[in-house]
Amino acid sequence: xxxxxxxxxxxxxxxxxxxPYGHPFHPILVTVPIGAWVGSLVFDVASHVVRDPDFLVxxxxxxxxxxxxxxxxAALVGFLDLFAIPPGTRAFRVGLVxxxxxxxVTGAYAVNFLWRHAGPRPxxxxxxxxxxxxxxxxxxxxxSGYLGGKLAYRWGVRVADEGTQAEGFVPSQHRPDSAS
Length: 180
Known about the structure:
Blueprint: H1 4-8, H2 15-18, H3 26-29, H4 31-46, H5 54-83, H6 90-118, H7 128-154, H8 162-166
Helix pairs in contact: 4-5, 4-7, 5-6, 6-7
Protein backbone atom coordinates (compact mmCIF):
# COMPACT_ATOMS: atom_id res chain seq x y z
CA UNK A 1 0.00 0.00 0.00
CA UNK A 2 1.35 3.42 -0.98
CA UNK A 3 1.47 6.04 1.76
CA UNK A 4 -0.77 8.99 0.73
CA UNK A 5 1.82 11.51 1.98
CA UNK A 6 4.41 9.94 -0.33
CA UNK A 7 2.02 10.25 -3.27
CA UNK A 8 1.38 13.91 -2.33
CA UNK A 9 5.11 14.67 -2.64
CA UNK A 10 5.03 13.50 -6.26
CA UNK A 11 2.28 15.87 -7.42
CA UNK A 12 2.88 19.57 -8.05
CA UNK A 13 1.11 22.26 -6.09
CA UNK A 14 0.67 24.05 -9.44
CA UNK A 15 1.59 22.18 -12.62
CA UNK A 16 1.61 25.45 -14.57
CA UNK A 17 4.19 26.98 -12.23
CA UNK A 18 6.20 24.02 -10.88
CA UNK A 19 5.98 21.67 -13.86
CA PRO A 20 3.59 18.81 -14.57
CA TYR A 21 3.63 15.42 -12.86
CA GLY A 22 6.93 13.70 -13.54
CA HIS A 23 8.46 16.82 -15.17
CA PRO A 24 9.35 19.36 -12.45
CA PHE A 25 10.95 22.64 -13.54
CA HIS A 26 13.25 22.99 -10.50
CA PRO A 27 15.89 20.45 -11.65
CA ILE A 28 16.02 22.15 -15.05
CA LEU A 29 16.43 25.63 -13.61
CA VAL A 30 19.16 24.74 -11.08
CA THR A 31 21.54 24.04 -13.95
CA VAL A 32 21.78 27.80 -14.60
CA PRO A 33 23.20 28.89 -11.23
CA ILE A 34 25.31 25.75 -10.84
CA GLY A 35 26.91 26.19 -14.25
CA ALA A 36 27.36 29.94 -13.87
CA TRP A 37 28.90 29.69 -10.40
CA VAL A 38 31.22 26.81 -11.31
CA GLY A 39 32.24 28.81 -14.38
CA SER A 40 32.93 31.85 -12.19
CA LEU A 41 35.23 29.74 -10.00
CA VAL A 42 37.09 28.50 -13.08
CA PHE A 43 37.46 32.12 -14.25
CA ASP A 44 38.65 33.19 -10.78
CA VAL A 45 41.36 30.54 -10.71
CA ALA A 46 42.32 31.22 -14.34
CA SER A 47 42.64 34.95 -13.57
CA HIS A 48 45.77 34.09 -11.57
CA VAL A 49 47.54 32.30 -14.42
CA VAL A 50 47.09 34.68 -17.37
CA ARG A 51 48.99 37.84 -18.19
CA ASP A 52 45.91 40.07 -18.54
CA PRO A 53 43.24 38.81 -16.08
CA ASP A 54 40.75 41.64 -16.57
CA PHE A 55 38.44 39.74 -18.94
CA LEU A 56 38.33 36.75 -16.59
CA VAL A 57 37.68 38.91 -13.52
CA UNK A 58 34.82 40.70 -15.31
CA UNK A 59 33.51 37.44 -16.74
CA UNK A 60 33.44 35.82 -13.29
CA UNK A 61 31.56 38.79 -11.87
CA UNK A 62 28.86 38.58 -14.56
CA UNK A 63 28.64 34.79 -14.25
CA UNK A 64 27.98 35.31 -10.54
CA UNK A 65 25.19 37.77 -11.38
CA UNK A 66 23.69 35.34 -13.89
CA UNK A 67 23.83 32.61 -11.26
CA UNK A 68 22.00 34.77 -8.70
CA UNK A 69 19.22 35.52 -11.18
CA UNK A 70 18.98 31.83 -12.14
CA UNK A 71 18.97 30.80 -8.47
CA UNK A 72 16.04 33.11 -7.74
CA UNK A 73 14.05 31.52 -10.57
CA ALA A 74 14.96 28.01 -9.35
CA ALA A 75 14.05 29.00 -5.78
CA LEU A 76 10.56 30.08 -6.80
CA VAL A 77 9.65 26.72 -8.30
CA GLY A 78 11.65 24.85 -5.67
CA PHE A 79 9.54 26.54 -3.03
CA LEU A 80 6.43 25.19 -4.75
CA ASP A 81 7.98 21.72 -4.77
CA LEU A 82 8.62 22.05 -1.03
CA PHE A 83 4.90 22.75 -0.51
CA ALA A 84 4.13 19.36 -2.11
CA ILE A 85 6.03 17.57 0.69
CA PRO A 86 3.92 16.87 3.79
CA PRO A 87 5.17 18.86 6.82
CA GLY A 88 6.56 16.85 9.71
CA THR A 89 8.26 14.28 7.47
CA ARG A 90 11.99 13.61 7.11
CA ALA A 91 11.74 14.67 3.48
CA PHE A 92 10.23 18.01 4.50
CA ARG A 93 13.04 18.65 7.03
CA VAL A 94 15.67 17.80 4.42
CA GLY A 95 13.84 20.07 1.97
CA LEU A 96 14.02 22.94 4.49
CA VAL A 97 17.76 22.43 4.98
CA UNK A 98 18.23 22.21 1.20
CA UNK A 99 16.30 25.47 0.73
CA UNK A 100 18.13 27.24 3.57
CA UNK A 101 21.56 26.28 2.22
CA UNK A 102 20.59 27.42 -1.27
CA UNK A 103 19.34 30.76 0.03
CA UNK A 104 22.59 31.22 2.00
CA VAL A 105 24.65 30.40 -1.10
CA THR A 106 22.59 32.80 -3.23
CA GLY A 107 23.06 35.52 -0.60
CA ALA A 108 26.80 34.85 -0.47
CA TYR A 109 27.03 35.16 -4.25
CA ALA A 110 24.98 38.37 -4.22
CA VAL A 111 27.46 39.79 -1.68
CA ASN A 112 30.36 38.52 -3.80
CA PHE A 113 28.90 40.27 -6.87
CA LEU A 114 28.42 43.56 -5.02
CA TRP A 115 31.92 43.33 -3.54
CA ARG A 116 33.43 42.81 -6.99
CA HIS A 117 31.25 45.47 -8.61
CA ALA A 118 32.11 48.12 -6.00
CA GLY A 119 35.84 47.43 -5.86
CA PRO A 120 38.63 48.37 -8.23
CA ARG A 121 39.61 45.96 -11.01
CA PRO A 122 42.54 43.86 -9.79
CA UNK A 123 45.68 43.73 -11.94
CA UNK A 124 46.78 40.30 -10.71
CA UNK A 125 43.57 38.29 -10.72
CA UNK A 126 40.58 38.19 -8.43
CA UNK A 127 41.25 38.98 -4.76
CA UNK A 128 41.91 36.20 -2.27
CA UNK A 129 38.80 37.00 -0.20
CA UNK A 130 36.52 36.92 -3.23
CA UNK A 131 38.08 33.66 -4.39
CA UNK A 132 37.71 32.13 -0.91
CA UNK A 133 34.05 33.17 -0.75
CA UNK A 134 33.52 31.55 -4.16
CA UNK A 135 35.17 28.29 -3.04
CA UNK A 136 33.18 28.11 0.21
CA UNK A 137 29.95 28.91 -1.63
CA UNK A 138 30.56 26.11 -4.15
CA UNK A 139 31.27 23.67 -1.31
CA UNK A 140 28.00 24.56 0.45
CA UNK A 141 26.19 24.34 -2.89
CA UNK A 142 27.57 20.80 -3.26
CA UNK A 143 26.15 19.79 0.13
CA SER A 144 22.80 21.30 -0.81
CA GLY A 145 22.86 19.49 -4.16
CA TYR A 146 23.47 16.22 -2.34
CA LEU A 147 20.38 16.88 -0.22
CA GLY A 148 18.34 17.77 -3.32
CA GLY A 149 19.45 14.50 -4.90
CA LYS A 150 18.37 12.65 -1.76
CA LEU A 151 14.92 14.22 -2.04
CA ALA A 152 14.51 13.19 -5.69
CA TYR A 153 16.44 9.94 -6.00
CA ARG A 154 15.94 8.40 -2.58
CA TRP A 155 12.48 9.64 -1.61
CA GLY A 156 11.07 10.36 -5.09
CA VAL A 157 9.91 13.91 -4.43
CA ARG A 158 8.28 15.19 -7.65
CA VAL A 159 9.33 11.99 -9.46
CA ALA A 160 6.74 9.86 -11.25
CA ASP A 161 5.67 6.74 -9.33
CA GLU A 162 7.09 3.33 -10.18
CA GLY A 163 4.02 2.32 -12.17
CA THR A 164 4.43 5.31 -14.45
CA GLN A 165 8.19 4.74 -14.70
CA ALA A 166 7.60 1.10 -15.70
CA GLU A 167 5.84 2.30 -18.87
CA GLY A 168 9.26 3.20 -20.26
CA PHE A 169 10.40 -0.42 -20.02
CA VAL A 170 7.53 -2.04 -21.87
CA PRO A 171 8.75 -3.40 -25.22
CA SER A 172 7.90 -1.05 -28.05
CA GLN A 173 5.65 -2.19 -30.88
CA HIS A 174 7.62 0.04 -33.22
CA ARG A 175 10.93 -0.55 -34.94
CA PRO A 176 13.87 -1.01 -32.52
CA ASP A 177 15.43 2.26 -33.69
CA SER A 178 12.32 4.37 -32.98
CA ALA A 179 12.47 6.88 -30.15
CA SER A 180 8.84 6.59 -29.00
